[in-house]
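#struct-pred

JT: dropping the chains for the assembly here, can someone run the whole complex?
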Amino acid sequence: MSKKNLKRLDLIFKNEFDTEAILAKTLVRSHDEIINDLISSGLKGRGGAGFPTGLKWKLTADNPGDEKYVICNADEGEPGTFKDREILSSVPHKVLAGMAVCAKIIGAKKGFIYLRGEYKFLVPELNKILDEFHALLDKLDLAFRVAIFLGSGAYICGEESALFESMEGKRGEPRNKPPFPAQKGYKNMPTVINNVETLAHTYSIFKYGPEKFRDLGVKDSRGSKVFSVSGDTPIPGIYELEFGMTLQKFVDDFGDGDAKAVQVGGASGFCVPRKKFSKTVIGYQGKLTGVSLPTGGSMMIFNSSRSMYNVLHNYLDFFVEESCGQCTPCRVGTQQLLLGVEAVKKGEKPSSYLDKLLDLAETMRITAKCGLGQSVANSFSSIVENFREEMIY
Amino acid sequence: MSEKINLRIDNIAVSVTEGTTILDAAKKINIRIPTLCYHEDLCVAGNCRVCMVEQVGSDRLLPSCAMPVAEGMEILTNSLKVRNARKKIIELLVSEHRAECTTCYKNGKCELQELSSEYIVGEDGFIDLIPFKDYTIDLFSPSIIKDDSKCIRCQRCIRTCAELQSVSALTVSHKGDQMKVTSFFEKPMYEVVCTNCGQCVNRCPTGALTERTYIDHVWAAINDDRKHVVVQTAPAVRIALGEALGMPPGEIVTGKMVAALRRLGFDSVLDTNFTADLTIIEEGNELLQRLKKVLVDKDESVKLPMTTSCSPGWVKFIEHVFPEFLEHVSTAKSPQQMFGALAKTFYAERIDADPAEMVSVSVMPCTAKKFEADRPEMRSSGYKDVDYVLTTRELALMIKQAGIDFTSLPDDDYDSIMGVSSGAAVIFGATGGVMEAALRTAYEVVTGREVPFENLNIEPVRGMDNVREATIKIENPLPDWAFLDGVELKTCVAHGLSNAKKVMEAVRAGAADYHFIEIMACPGGCLGGGGQPIPTSPEIREKRSEAIYLEDELKVIRKSHENPEIVMIYEKFLKEPLGHKSHELLHTHYKGRSRY
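RK: done, full complex below.
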């Protein structure tokens, strides 16, 4: 790679053997101080929704509850995302340290790692690390225990309220919101639920202070972000990059020289065509960004050999199966989108039927119960609008 | 008192208590927001997304049934954005629904049909998904037909079965496009824990859950000259039938109903209320006998508390869920089955008819009665005691088919034997009614005096509270009942199987020392039965209840044992309560069923 012009960072994956020192230093600080540090660092949820982490902890701390919980969302299910697996296998102590500090602030005695079922192989190693970590917490006099809860493979269970339902032994279906997790989460108690990467970032903020984190990135997209790069790239893998790059720079770095589109944020994210690469910034700012989407971090590069119809068909197939089936727009809407594009492709419906489908996608976006149904429109509309002819011919 | 929240809905200011939903706030100012999965009796699901409204300044729409109001909210229920989205949602629901309306049993009474007509869902809708689906139509149950192809996954039935009934015969399985409402291991309804109560049928917005209809069988019998067709009508039918024929809830239509039945061509128009009175005599005496055996004879094989047995939903529930308590259930058959057994014996004899050529039809507020009539235990006349059970809704359909202008019918009276009844029998139709009727008689049998309540109205057992308790102290009994002197008779009334379950769990835990428990499977008792006109709501059930108690007040005879036909049937036929004939015809035993 000759024109390597994106800053590769090593905040998350650097193995630092100072968990005890960092925890000892952080746990004695006042809760307000820690929360203020998190807020001023600009850290936002790395699961994709981008809710300010410090505020989330503060709201949960302020809400009364007999018990409170910290949950690490490791149900990494977004197609094209594999960064959380890597974080949990290489630097789990950073995630656990973040959970412990959160537990102290909100007053939780129990935490969980909701681990994607397919990541079962991580369990023996994680349990070993948990034993060591619990011993460390005892030493630091923090009454907090973390247990692993293994998911069963449903994509929807990564949605926080469906995740709670699943943990409670029920069908993994999203709840009505409000109430939000900070009010009523797991077992209807105030709960902080953070993505694996978010928790790992809190560790860096505790260690290096909020400024170092804030200095990275642009505007409201601060810090670094771990990306899962896949598709038509000579160098697929996991990369930690500074937030706020343009897609053009990303493609220059990671593409194979023939990229025609990048799917930012997985199946539920946006598809950006080549002509918009230079105008698209990866971050929370602007409209067409890939990061304010569930499980941000997935970057799939497609070169000109790829049929965008097949790409969309693949995503829709996925959604048709992974919708929990509870709400009408998502359950029926996904089926209609899939059958609809098939019908247009086969010539059974006129190309104008795509407009009806775009309308439907918009309705799904504004009426579906949870992020799944709401974000189907992202990939659908961006692919259909930018590659309309590929849908028809 | 919680705080008042001020908001504007469609530019109309409204002030409601904190926690109120947008839907309820809109109702308060007479703005109707269409709903499908929402039902007053059930917890909020928020899954159909028909009730979406716009909050000014907000990108996404809000589900009005699930969203609590907030101070200063500006809600639009009829903006372009809302109407477009709503129409799309309805189109989606229609696309996964086998919309063969003209051949559907619910045609004209379907909430989805109503909405699709309101929003003019035309032929330019979405692709029909039915040809892509694998669906089941379960025709095996004698009570309930479940047609998956009509299901719109609103889950009202599931919430009904779990929340109101604690039965959970229905549940969701699979996800995505495969997601469906099904039973344990997708077995047919008659093989699972379903009690046939029909509460799901009452709440299903479409034709996915309906009663099995026997209308054509009944017409065939009526039109067969060789057959003598006897019809009986349950207490709660007369106060609800009008609703299905265009009248408001709470109208007493007993006389019109009798006239209509005669016009339909039934040969004998008789009253289940007669056997309700008979049930009181048999069941009341059974209670007193059990009390004697327990208190005087110290017979440990005799169980208390005794529970009622009139509600077939309850009987099937206890068979599945509390089989160890079956000995507690009164051996007295339900009024429907007592009637059936007598129709083809006593009544046939009286009118000189051949019981083999007799067809016994009942009109019930109930779907479980269809199952009850099919029970092997219910053939003590030597024939099937009750041949066909019609719901209140089916009777209304027959009246419509016959072209009868129901509202203008003159009142008519039941035929003379097995047609006379007391006020005590009418109140069988309301939760607490059997208890009240039994107490009116039992207290008088024991003490020789009327129950010590004003105008015989035993208020503590009335009303709609989930579980109600009443204690009556027996003082100065007649010599035969001296052992009851000073005994406080403890009674309990529960309606809806969730409440029944709570009561039975308390009994099992030894935390309740009742003597007599009345349980009705349906909310409100039979007046809220699974065979009653749709819709149902707390308000509608309240109106029906008022009508029932009014009908009781209007009766000359208020106590079962004073019904002259009851006196006569004991003189001429049964001889004595709990006697030989009674045991042969009017009592039975049930056996346990597995939970799965």
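JT: nice. The interface with chain B takes residues 154, 156, 171, 176, 178, 319-329, 331-336, 339-340, 343, 356, 359-360, 363, 365-369, 374 of chain A (CB under 8 Å). Chain A is about 45% helix and 15% strand.
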